[in-house]
Amino acid sequence: MSAPGITEPTEVITRARAGDAEAWGELYREFAPAIFRFCRRALPTREDAEDATMEIFMKLRGKLGQYDMTRSFSAWLYKVAANHCWDTLRRRKTRQDKETEDLENVPLEHPDPNQLDQLIDQRTSEEVRKALEKLGARARMALVMRYYSDMSYDEIADALGVRRAFVGVVLLRARHELRQALEGSAALAAGGAS
Amino acid sequence: MSEMPKEKMQHLDEMTCLLYIERQLDRTRGLEVSAHTQECDSCRTLLRALERESRLLTRAMLEAEEPLPSRLAQFQERARKSMQWIWGLVFGLAATGAYALYTGYIYPWQQQLEQAGFGGSNLLGLLIFQGAFWKGWQSMITLLEVLAMVTLAGLGAIFFRRRMRRGSALAMVFAGFCTLLALPAPAAATEFRKGDNVEVSKSETIKGDVYITCGRGHVDGTIDGDLYFFGESLDVNGHVTGDVIVFSKSARINGEVDGNVRAFNNNLTITGTVGRNVMAFDESLNIDSSAKIGRSLTSFVESLSVDGSVGRDALLFFAHANLAGKIDGEVRARGDSLVIGSTAVIGGPVKYKGNKQAVVSPSAKLASPVEFTQLEKRREYRHGNYYVWQVIWAAAFILFGLVLFALMPKFAEDAVKSAEQYGAAAGLGVLVLFGVPIAAVIACITVVGLFIGISTLFLWYASLYFAQVIVGAVVGQWLMGRTSELWPLIGRMAVGLVIVRLCTTIPHVGGWVKFAAILWGIGAISLALYRRFQPVIAPGTPSAPFTPPLPPHTTVGGTMPA
Asked: What mean pLDDT is predicted for residues B125-154?
């Protein structure tokens, strides 16, 4: 698992682990934009994302020795970032207890696929990003972990502290929330136009 | 399923469709879904829509619609600087350790050798005290000042950044500008002087503070401000209206200082006048009979002689002190031996804590008899000196560990890994800690084994110290994470060692902590040695590449059928 466009800089990581400041700089330059974007999607404000990015890299510096070189660096990096962002959100108590209860009710309906198709056709990336900002912390975090950093269900379960079997439910509920937000913005846009 | 009419066919729920496209269904269920979607248009469309939704999400999130903020673009530099304090600390401790080794071991040996006729050209002394050592000070001080400023600014920025958002930060900046504009311009500028010899001549008057970094400094004129001196020696024969802060090998205050004198020297002699207080951290401090100190005297010295006058109280820490002058206030003294001479006049009470009773001349004029308290020898942790020496010892340990880790990186790494096998390390530790010296002594008794016995004892003694270094590295790894690289391991060792040494200073418990650390560490070293001497099985034919077992949720789903 690695984010698109990111290659594994094994040699640079080895040098950074040995304390080479230049190698550390290279790692930072290569991964900071991706991690900032990850935090930007996961956290409510730009300032939060900036702070989190810096904290993640500070943390990373201490943890680099723990990284298993046989595995994907970007996957490990995203795992650190996801844990950090989720901890930040949890500390702010933005997670709602209601969300945990909802997990027990698995959505089993079959939506109208044409309506969903139409909704996807009409929405731009920017609208999706704006809709994402309106989601609850866990829903947003789950979508970002899955569709931005391509994390596995096990990793998502681990980061969010839910059972693996519920990850699909979290993701599906997050998609529902997103669709509602997209439909809401469309209704607003339509209302504004009329 | 195919014989069922399409309108009556039961559709897949959305959850199943999502798990299918995410490859999370088990093999059987995946095949069922695949077969169903070949028949069912609605479910096939739903799968396609969900996939398109996934792609839309990924695309929307991956798009870099905003550039990396400049704060982040420059962060790596700041991150690098913020780590420098650790290396600064390690360097400082190592330097202190070197100093401790020199003063504790090398210098006394050198002295003994000289007394025994092996003196001759004393190269080390020549290098350190004949001027060469002091010549580079000015550039060193500038570098240290800059480093200190950068570190302080960095720490300050980190501290405030965490507490301020942009709005409040801007308000702070504007308020700062306004305050600066409102403040009057400073009346006098600060002057910096450097060189081998720096002189402020008799006719010269400097307005404002002066920083002097040089070999030898002479102040014969007037400084209308504070004097900061870093160098080999300083003579103040003129007049300083402010304070004198001096770091040097020797200093003499023959002239007049209106403010305070704060001195960190080998030798400080005061023959002139100090208007306010004197605080000295010296090897020897002499307050001459002509000297006058307007207020109090505070000293942390080895040898103290007070023949002049002190206007107020005196707080004195020393090894040996001789009071023969006039002290108007109270004297609180702590040291090894105190002599109060016949010419001494002390206006307040004298409270002395020491190892021996004070020797007081019958002619001395004291307001009240000396109150003597015998120091409890075993409670050495109550002394400030004890903690200073603990710091110095920690530094010496770091230096020792650094050398050993650099010389034997593989063995050090093995020993640290062995220390994590707590049971084996502790058990072997008990055996080696007590068994080896007994065996060595037995070897010494037999004439043939004398060399082996002494060598073993020597190695055993050295390993007591190395054991603590190993434990320090383990503690450092607990705190900062595991590493197999040399320099990060040394960094962890330094941090861990400081913590271990701190724990050993805890009254009553510290001794046991030290014992446990030695036991544990020596066991780890022994375990690493034991493994090193074990025969290694020759590698045979290469094994087949490792294939991980399939996870419980074996995935067979995937792209939807065409």
From this structure: 45
CA distance B101 to B122: 18
Give residue A147's pLDDT: 93
Q: Are residues B423 and B491 in the same domain?
A: yes
Tell me the average pLDDT across A106-110. Answer: 69
Domain co-membership, A71 together with A148: no
Q: What pLDDT is attached to residue B85?
A: 54
Q: Over chain B, what is the mean pLDDT?
A: 75
CA B71 to chain CA centroid, nearest Å: 29
**B45, A172: Cβ pair inside 8 Å?**
no
Please check whether residue B65 lies inside any domain of the structure. no
CA distance A145 to A162: 14
**A169 vs B contacts (CB less than 8 Å):** 15
Cβ proximity of B299 and B261 under 8 Å: no
List the structure tokens of A101.
């209860």
Are residues B278 and B353 both part of a single domain?
A: yes
The answer to whether A79 faces chain B, any CB pair under 8 Å, is no
Please indicate, yes or no, whether residues B392 and B523 belong to a single structural domain of this protein. yes
Return the CATH number at A37.
1.10.1740.10
Q: Which of B14, B66, B80 sits opposite A110 (nearest CB)?
A: B14
Which two three-digit tokens encode residue B171?
């308000």
Domains held by chain A: number: 2
Interchain contact A28–B (C-beta under 8 A):
yes
Provide the domain count of chain B.
Answer: 4
The answer to whether the Cβ–Cβ distance between B53 and A36 falls below 8 Å is: no
> Out of B46, B52, B57, whose CB is closest to A110?
B46
Q: Is B67 helix (H, G, I), strand (E, B) or coil?
A: coil
Measured N-to-C along each axis, helices A153-160 and A73-91 cross at an angle, to the nearest 10 degrees, of: 30
A61 interfacial to chain B (CB closer than 8 Å): yes
Using alpha carbons only, how large is chain B's radius of gyration in Å? 36
Question: Is position B362 within any domain?
Answer: yes
> pLDDT tens digit string along A158-191?
888 888 888 999 999 999 999 988 887 655 444 4
Q: Which domain holds residue A84?
A: 10-91
Split at pLDDT 50, 70, 90, the class of A144 is very high
Instruction: Mark which of A34, A63, A91 sits at the end of a domain.
Output: A91
CA A21, CA A24: separation in Å to the nearest integer?
Answer: 5
Chains A & B: contacts with CB separation below 8 Å: 154
Last residue of a domain, one of A70, A91, A112: A91
- Among B228, B253, B278, where does a domain finish? B253
B22 neighbourhood in chain A, CB within 8 Å: 146, 153, 168, 171
CB A18 to CB B485 under 8 A? yes
Residue B36 lies in a domain: yes
As a whole number, the mean pLDDT across chain A is 81
**Average pLDDT rounded to a whole number, residues B161-184:** 49
CB pair distance less than 8 Å for B69 and A114: no
Chain B residues within an 8 Å CB radius of A33: 64, 68
Domain region containing B433: 382-532
Residue B529 has pLDDT above 90, yes or no: no
pLDDT at B90 over 50: yes
Query: What angle in degrees, to the nearest 10, is found between the helix axes of B450-480 and B409-419?
Result: 70
- Which pLDDT score is estimated for B304? 92
> Is there a domain that residue A5 lies in?
no
Classify residue A3: in a domain, yes or no.
no
Predicted confidence at residue B138, as pLDDT, reads 44
Clarify whether residues A140 and A75 are in a common domain. Answer: no
* Cα B351–Cα B353–Cα B355 angle in degrees, nearest 5: 145
Residue A157 lies in a domain: yes
Q: What pLDDT digit, counting tens, does each position of B397-440 carry?
A: 888 888 888 888 888 888 888 888 888 888 888 888 888 888 87
Residue with tokens 């681990």: A158
